[in-house]
Amino acid sequence: MKLFKSIKTFRGGVHPAELKELSESCEFEIMPNPKQVIIPLSQHLGKPAKALVKKGDVVKAGQIIAEQDGYISVPIHSPVSGKVTKISNEISASGFPKESILISADESNELELQPSLNLDWVTPEEIQERVKWAGIVGQGGAAFPTFVKITPQPDKKIDAVILNGCECEPYLTRDYRYMLEKTEEVVDGLRLIMRSLGVQKGAIGIEDNKPKAIKKLKEVTAKYDNITVEILETKYPQGAEKMLIKAVLDREVPPGKLPLDVGVVIQNIGTAVAIFDAVVKGEPQITAAMTVSGYGIKEPKNVIVRVGTPLADVIEYCDGVKDDAIKVVVGGPMMGVAQFDFAAPVMKATSGLLVLTAKEENLHEETPCLRCGKCIDVCPLGLVPSKLARYSQLDRLEDAEGLDITVCMECGTCTYTCPANIPLVQWIRLGKQRVLAMQRERKSA
Amino acid sequence: MTITTTENPTYKLELASSPHVHSRWNTKQAMWLVVIALIPAVISAVIFFGIYQLLVIAVAVGFAVGTEAAIKTIRKRKVTITDGSGIITGLLLALILPPNFNLAFTALGSIVAIGLGKEIFGGIGYNIFNPALVGRAFLQAAFPVPMTTWTNPNFSQVDAVTTATPLSAFKFDSVATELSSMFIGNIGGSLGETSAIAVMLGGIFLIAIGVVNYRVPAAMLIGAILFGGVFWMIDPIAYPNPLFHLLAGGFLFGLFFMATDWVTSPMTPKGMWIYGLGISLVLIIIRLFGGLPEGVMYAILFMNAFVPLINRYTRPRVFGEVK
Ligand code: SF4
Ligand code: SF4
Fold first, then answer.
1. Cα–Cα distance between A329 and B102 in angstroms, integer?
2. Residues of A in Cβ contact (< 8 Å) with B30
3. Three-state SS at B163
4. What is the pLDDT of residue A93?
5. A33 pLDDT band (50/70/90 cuts)?
6. Taking all residues of chain A, what is their mean pLDDT, rounded to a whole number?
7. Mutate to test the interface with B, among A250, A260, A354, A371 (most CBs of B within 10 A)
8. Is B97 helix (H, G, I), strand (E, B) or coil?
9. Residue A2 — pLDDT band, cuts 50, 70, 90?
């Protein structure tokens, strides 16, 4: 359709029902503090933080309770004031138990803050130091320590920062609300990232299904001639880093490479706000802003909750689930993780909690592959999902490797599309792990 | 609501991994949409060749579905009549038979189409050749005379029982049929193939809703105009004009309903183009130089055989890789 539309986009992808209407007009609500929080020591990519407290310790909100351990790691702050009741392995939203600090909260709400830094005079080093202290992790899903990404590396030349405002996952409206309610903070957050990296060019990529947010962003960015608002086609996975860079800058990140390698740093909208809060307000990352939605939840909302709040509390705050709910997901419907235990806590990078019904899931009986080619047509990375899944099923790992199974970003677009309802990405995920293991073995041999 | 924890599993939840939502597509529904798209062609068959054709269609569909169920039962597989694929095979076969075809032969054609065309490979998804075309190729070989006896359509000016198809009229008698008759369907030919308008109605519907990808039809169209046009420009008297190629014989029917069959056509975008162009090239060669006036069926079957090869050599470019 390039002929008729000059709007920026990438090849492939799908148009799932957006269902943003369930929650897009709900302003952020601040949920009251829970009675108890569960703080996993590993809420980020990299090495888990090291606990600094022990059972019985009294802690204040904002106090560091676990320190950074190694370079790719971040500290963790207590989200509430109260007393440490236990340090043990607890269930987490990833489905695995993780070592966690349990704190029973008292009534007080004061927060230990750092001094505010001046937006116009703050130096790159000060920004990096503050972001590291605040324990900020990427809000886009992978939860990568943010200070690492905003610290320039001598061997990589970065010339553009893109804020990812696509929010291409259906249902989720958290970034949308941020862009509407905290437009200034979003843009200032972007400016801080640009300053930290010494980059001149900044862009905010946003899908064309969010006209109100586009309007506000354009108003606020009008005074900066080095920041543009890039309107992109509404299509999943427009917010995938590779797809976003392709659409905004027409650069392709080669397989196995990072955005850094094509001179780009991408940050999520929520991360920009967290950076602003850390630098200007002196706040550590102790809350998560998230969308609670789906036809299975009684009252969809956008809420700001303390990190460590059990999912059950969040669900209760939204009036509970309906009787026809069949699935609870943390994250978006395309890449999120299904939950079996509502005791699992909200983490720093949690962006959504969805309660789905069978109607939304729309799963049919699996049939043999019809060789329709739809999965190939939609794969944004140019893979052949039908074959990859088949090879994974048959344990033909070398063949799967030859067809670049490790390139797959597990976006789920192929499974979403497949008329035969074959769990393609599920097989590919499995095969990819095993091919990676095989490659590690080969290297060590 | 009851809150579930691992200690207190009171709420049953699904745990399948992401994605948690799926498109509206499923096999069954896609098959039924094809059946719906064939309705205009069925109607045109009845209008031009009479109500008896419905009987042919019913026999073809009945035996296709019955054969499929029987083979599945013998092989102890689940009977999947509701997926509609047997119905489509029967329907497609009937629509490419000559009018007033013998019912016993029709039944035989259906049995062969399902048995040899599909189930012998392991059922839908595994077959290489288009099952309906396998059935028709069998009938053509077994019963060449009834397979080329063309009943005169209902509104013909000529008062005769049988007629020639536009292709055989051109090939053997050098008579060019009027394009407007070919467009509406008031000509000699197979049941569902004569009316270009009815076929296009169904075909464009399938493309518009996304069951069928536009690439194969587009490639065939371009190919026929290109290859047919080259010969026509060389000698406009000896060779028909390309528009005639598009409207004659089963070209449009093959283009929309046979060549686009999911299972037997290529899966890759580039492969679809190659396949479509290949069919048209083979078709023009058969039509202009072969012993048969009609060639769509053979052209598609011929290209079916190359599909695995085409798929293998037309992998899309992996994102970010430099060619
Ligand atoms: S999950 Fe992997 S194979 Fe499937 S569409 Fe996404 S990148 Fe392609
Ligand atoms: S989308 Fe599904 S049915 Fe179609 S080719 Fe891919 S795996 Fe096969």
1. 59
2. 370, 419
3. strand
4. 86
5. very high
6. 92
7. A371
8. coil
9. very low
Distance (Å, rounded) from C-alpha A431 to C-alpha A444?
A: 20
Q: State the complex-level ipTM.
A: 0.88
**Separation between Cα atoms, residue B226 and residue B277, nearest integer Å:** 9
Calculated CA dihedral for residues B5, B6, B12, B13, nearest 10 degrees: 90
Distance in angstroms (rounded) separating the CA atoms of residues A50 and B109: 74
Atom 6 of ligand 1: nearest residue by CA position:
A411
Is the Cβ pair A370, B322 closer than 8 Å? no
Sheet holding A301-306, edge to edge: A28-30, A301-306, A287-293, A352-357, A325-330, A337-338
Q: Which residue bears the tokens 């939605």? A: A293
Give me the pLDDT at residue B164, please.
73
pLDDT category at B3 given cuts 50, 70, 90 is: very low
Give B161-185 pLDDT, tens digit per residue. Answer: 677 777 777 776 666 777 777 777 7
Phi-psi region of A308 (alpha: psi -120 to 50; beta: other; left: phi over 0): left
Ligand nearest the Cα of residue A385 is 1
